[in-house]
Amino acid sequence: MDEETDELLAEFLVESFENLDEIDQDLVSLEQTPDATDILQRIFRAFHTIKGTCGFLGYETLGAVTHAAETLLARLRDGAMAYDAEVASALLRSTDAVRELLTVIERTKEEGSDEHLDLIAELHHLAERTAAHDAAPSTDVQLQADDDAEPGPRLGELLVERGVTTEADVAIALVRQADLGDPRPIGEVLIDAGAVDPEDVRSALSSQQHTRAADATLRVDVSLLDSLVTLVGELVLTRNQIRRLTGNDGVDSTLVIAAQRLNGVTAELQSHVMKTRMQPIGAVWSKLPRIVRDLAVQCEKAIRVDMHGQGTELDKAIVEAIRDPLTHMVRNAVDHGIESPAERVAAGKPEEGVLTLRAFHESGNVHIEIADDGRGIDVTKVKAKAVRQQLITEDQAARMTDREAVDLVFRAGFSTAEAVSNLSGRGVGMDVVRTNISRIGGTVECDNHPGAGTTFKVKIPLTLAIVPALITRGGGERFAVPHANLVELVGLGTESSRAIESVQGAPVYRLRDRMLPIVHLNAELNLTPPASDTRRSAGTIVVLRADGHEFGLVVDEVIDTEEIVVKPLPAHVDAVPVFSGCTVMGDGDVALILDVRGIAEVAGVLDPDGAVNANAETTTTESNSTADPVLIVRVDATTRAALALDNIERLEVFDPTRVELAAGHPVVQYRGALLPLLDLSATVGAATQRDSSDELVVVVYADGHRSVGLVIERVVDIVEEHTTNYEVPYRFGVVGSTIVRGDVTDLIDVAALVDAMPASFAALVNGAIQLEASDAV
Amino acid sequence: MQSERTLCTLLVDDQLYGVDVLRVQEIIGEQRLTPVPLASSRVVGLLNLRGDIVPAISLRGTLGLAPAKPGTKCAHVVLRTRDGLASVIVDAIGDVLEADEARFEEPPDTLSGSSRELVSGVLKLDDRLLLELDVDRVLAVDRRAA
């Protein structure tokens, strides 16, 4: 084959595989709605495309199979026969055959020896079943009509359809274009005439473009995207390094500003490059209806699949990683969850079971739910089974809550299927699902409603390559803890012996009303803190969650939170379960990334006995951390900060024209005094220039007679959080951190910020320069 | 011209070793290493080689020799392996020498223990012996653990 044909073949294969996946899905949904002619058309067209190209490339078997399938589909489309299970199975088998042929072609460029004669005969037989009394119109004639691709909806029509403009307005605009020779696109004409809101036109245009996606998208080799991600990773590392270098005192301010711009641009570039690797979860889900259908037929159940949020995107690597676990959970739901039609009717449910797949984004994570309306998990049965399999003792079973008992299904070696079927129930089920999901930093939990169904909730991070992490220190080395596992930070006082107690020999910490099992990082990793370490601090408890269990990891010190580029451990380093990878820090040193689940496992805090201990009743609420309300603000596009609510007087919005200069500093006249303004973006943020015409959002901060206005972008929330104070401020103007919805947010020390400003500014804050003085400006 | 072989010579515990010069990516001095807790003792740590994270393997540990006295100078020989770069820590680096293929001999039976498997040949120099190391065996990856 010459090069050109090779290229054509490669393209044909990619397209055909994609088409096949769609056909599978369409065939299954056609069973639900046999009258949906648009679906039928789509299937027909997909088969026709494959047939057309393989005719050109000279693949006869492939041509014969697709032709036979197409003939059958033509009969269906003409209404000459009904779409029943028999036809559906035959068509699904033909997609399998086509896939098989394509796979062989991909490997050898030849079709292989299987001619699929049985299948072709069956397809013809089915097509002729009703053909006797109806001379089928020639397929080719039909094709003519099909190939005339219908153009996407016109913008004017789309806008009218959405009710954002009227037909009359569109007509006028069209006349302007046609008769008056207005060269502008219709959208612009309409906006100009005031007939429509620009926002509506934009959204209509994007949806119109969506229907013409083929023109707006480009196929790119995945390896190219991967190398882009690697390069961005390097850039992030360099950015971190430069940020560190420019964070020192006495650095030229223009350099600092350039570094801060680099910071912002890198963050944006990173998010865009990460987006190129995003794939909709539908890419995995598309296979599921077919699997469910085949299984349902096999176990004689009636099951409908409902999908919500197919467009939810996540990193390609994660899509690959969750394929098997998802398939497994879906199989489980069909096999164990949903009852037989007879059982369902007896329980007063509709005969048809419903399997609902739902995906959505929430706070940097993707949530996937797999819900069935079946019988739910029988807790008594689960306990009995676990006792029989000696996973737990009778005593433990009796003490277990229902939730803990349901969690047993994730234990290795557990299987509830009374009879081991060939579908699931081989005992290598849910524990593998949980292991695989935690390997990518995700969690899986189960909501059980006995008699009404089960919902498995999976939570996974959006991306794996660059993740935010808390940098901690133990034994003189730095260790990164991914934010995904982070719950909160608790500072240990100097009298740690009292803070950490011992229950049955195991160290625990009383955190509010519960007992938190404690793991010492230094002890687990055989680290010795450097002898020179004379700090009196007993360290910080980093509260982590793994597999639904919380535990506290005691580290010597919390250093910072940083975006880290995750790299695998080199192959020559033996697999150590407590590390999930490594990264290069801003100063060029290598740091190891802790595998939170691994460390919990090694330390034995995932043990159910440990969990029972941790849940032991305790009435003391003594705690070393403080729960003060804090105001969470967005400083600029990239920075969030927390301010203690105690000293915040008011929130104000000032017109920028009210800003004057006093002693060279921006001030506003406020309640008969001068309020000096301090832009937080310039001090703790990314030094973003604010749009000079935008209103200024200002937090009025007052401490006794001192007051200062902190300029921010907007207020996010007020939360009551436990904050951790750092022994040594690791970053200027930051006293500690708090975790708000999973993100570490720095707590700003306003007094320190003011002190660092020139004396003239401090004088303004102290009210020493009175209103009269501003007349000089 | 198959008969000539070029070796990079290394010194560990006063014994001269050689590795195929084509496998050597570069030689660097002492580096700041990040130790990997719980890993086997021959993994001394990880180093950052221009953005690549490279494991540093102790040749002493691999050969079953006593660890160097603290404070002893050392050097890194970064080698190319099937599993990416890996650095071998040695006491010192010697010359690069060319030797006739025919002058290499089978390792003597008197070589004992783990080093027997790691040495692929012996070269008699005028005043001493040079043991040629089999790079792939020295840096073999334990797949069972993975």
Q: Which CATH architecture of the largest domain in chain A would you pick?
A: 2-Layer Sandwich
CATH topology of the largest domain in chain A: Heat Shock Protein 90
Provide the CATH architecture of chain B: Beta Barrel
Gap from first CA to last CA of chain B: 40 Å
Fourth CATH level, the homologous superfamily of the largest domain in chain A: Histidine kinase-like ATPase, C-terminal domain
Proportion of β residues of chain A? Answer: 25-35%
CATH topology (level 3) name of chain B: OB fold (Dihydrolipoamide Acetyltransferase, E2P)
General shape of chain A:
globular
Radius of gyration of chain A: 32 Å
Overall pLDDT metric of chain B:
84
Largest interface in this structure: A-B, 25 and 27 residues
Keywords:
heterodimer; A: 777 residues; alpha+beta; Four Helix Bundle (Hemerythrin (Met), subunit A); 6 domains; 6-stranded mixed β-sheet; 29 strands; globular; disordered C terminus; B: 146 residues; mainly beta; OB fold (Dihydrolipoamide Acetyltransferase, E2P); 11 strands; 48% strand
What does this structure look like?
The complex is a heterodimer of chains A (777) and B (146). With 777 residues, chain A is of the alpha+beta class. Chain A contains 28 helices and 29 strands. In chain A, the strands form six sheets. In chain A, strands 10-14-15-13-12-11 form a six-stranded mixed beta sheet. In chain A, strand 12 (506-511) and strand 13 (514-520) form a beta hairpin. The radius of gyration of chain A is 32 Å and the shape is globular. Chain B is mainly β. Chain B has a single domain, classed as OB fold (Dihydrolipoamide Acetyltransferase, E2P). In chain B, a hairpin with a 2-residue loop joins strand 1 (4-12) and strand 2. Chain B is globular and about 40 Å long. The model of chain B has no long low-confidence stretch (mean pLDDT 84). Chains A and B meet through strand 17 and strand 18 of A and strand 4 and strand 5 of B.
